[in-house]
């Protein structure tokens, strides 16, 4: 005897009211009736309802769905091919959206509102997102971390490029002084260490001399920082650490 409207609603999650509406507009009229004249949906009707729900999920209006399903030139295989193409496009779009959300999450962790291309342009091979989880784990509970997140959240690509250029110039100046044989506790190099501290204090978080000394120690203790500085000039990490320590002593 086919399926009642209530049964179909239970199978599909479509409301009885919606099924009645589809019947009224001729989109899905039950192919059978009971002896009492009640609607009964046959298996072919359920197949058509499945097609309707698919196209509705993809955002097609009801009138367009009717045209697609009533096209005399379209066979079931054609509908499947069309659905496969539409689903593939939908999957690709959803994957792009998921990637975009993931990039936004990673950027927000680091307080960096840049696209991957912009990050590469600014930071080169260094990927700040790679350290986001570790940074949050090690310092997430500190005021310095929270302050850094607040400040950097509003930085643009041009801000980051300017800051990167400034910081690299300080590092080159320290490396040049080292190459000339200047002692890390010389006035010239201690002044560069102070410039280094003030840069961090101005762009990232409040960095007093005690905090700066901790950073200098980390440059030597953490092999990744050591490698970064020693790429500029071998031994630069320890040299900068010594200059930072000497500058802090000079400040009393």
Which features would summarize this protein structure in a list?
13 helices, 252 residues, mainly alpha, two-stranded antiparallel sheet, rod-shaped
What are the SSEs and their pairings?
Elements lengths: L4 H8 L3 H9 L7 E2 L5 E2 L2 H15 L4 H8 L6 H35 L5 H8 L8 H8 L3 H10 L4 H23 L7 H17 L5 H13 L1 H10 L3 H15 L2
Antiparallel strand pairs: 1-2
Distance between the termini: 95 Å
Order of helices and strands: HHEEHHHHHHHHHHH
- Low-pLDDT regions: 118-140
Largest sheet: 2 strands, antiparallel
Q: Work out the helicity level.
A: over 70%
Q: How many beta-strand runs?
A: 2
Q: What is the assembly state of the chains in this entry?
A: single chain
Strand content: under 5%
- Look at the helices and sheets and give the structural class: mainly alpha
Identify the strand order in the major beta sheet: 1-2
User: Radius of gyration over alpha carbons?
Assistant: 33 Å
The helix count comes to 13
Average pLDDT, rounded to a whole number, is: 78
Inertia-based shape: rod-shaped
Summarize this, please?
The chain is mainly α. The chain has helices at residues 5-12, 16-24, 43-57, 62-69, 76-110, 116-123, 132-139, 143-152, 157-179, 187-203, 209-221, 223-232, 236-250; strands at residues 32-33, 39-40. It is built from 13 helices and two strands.
Describe this entry's structure for a reader:
With 252 residues, this protein is an all-alpha fold. Helices cover 71% and strands 2% of the residues. The chain is built from 13 helices and 2 strands; from the N terminus they run ααββααααααααααα. The protein has helices at 5-12, 16-24, 43-57, 62-69, 76-110, 116-123, 132-139, 143-152, 157-179, 187-203, 209-221, 223-232, 236-250, and strands at 32-33, 39-40. Strands 1-2 form a two-stranded antiparallel ribbon. The longest helix is centred in the middle third of the chain and has 35 residues, at 76-110. The chain is rod-shaped and about 105 Å long. The N and C termini lie far apart (95 Å). Mean pLDDT is 78; it is low at 118-140.
């Amino acid at each position: 005897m086919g399926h009642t409207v209530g049964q179909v609603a239970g199978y599909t999650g479509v409301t009885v009211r919606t099924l009645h509406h589809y019947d009224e507009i001729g989109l899905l009229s039950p192919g059978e009736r009971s002896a009492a004249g009640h609607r009964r949906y046959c298996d072919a009707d359920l197949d058509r309802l499945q097609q309707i729900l698919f196209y509705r999920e993809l955002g097609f209006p009801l009138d367009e769905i009717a045209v697609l399903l009533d096209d005399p030139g379209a066979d079931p295989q054609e509908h499947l091919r069309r659905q496969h193409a539409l689903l593939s496009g939908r999957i690709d779009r959803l994957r792009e959206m998921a990637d975009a959300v993931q990039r936004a999450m990673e950027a927000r962790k680091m307080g960096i509102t840049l696209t991957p291309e912009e990050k590469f342009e600014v930071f080169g091979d260094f990927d700040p997102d790679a350290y986001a989880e570790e940074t949050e784990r090690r310092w997430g509970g500190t005021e310095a971390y929270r302050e850094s997140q607040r400040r950097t959240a509003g930085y643009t690509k041009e801000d980051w490029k300017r800051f990167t250029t400034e910081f690299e110039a300080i590092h080159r100046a320290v490396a040049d002084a080292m190459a000339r044989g200047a002692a890390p506790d010389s006035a010239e190099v201690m002044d560069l260490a102070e410039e280094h501290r003030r840069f961090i204090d101005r762009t990232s978080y409040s960095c007093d001399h005690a905090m700066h000394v901790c950073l200098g120690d980390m440059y030597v203790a953490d092999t990744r920082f050591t490698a970064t500085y020693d790429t500029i000039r071998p031994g630069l990490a320890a040299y900068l650490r010594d200059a930072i320590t000497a500058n802090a002593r000079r400040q009393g």
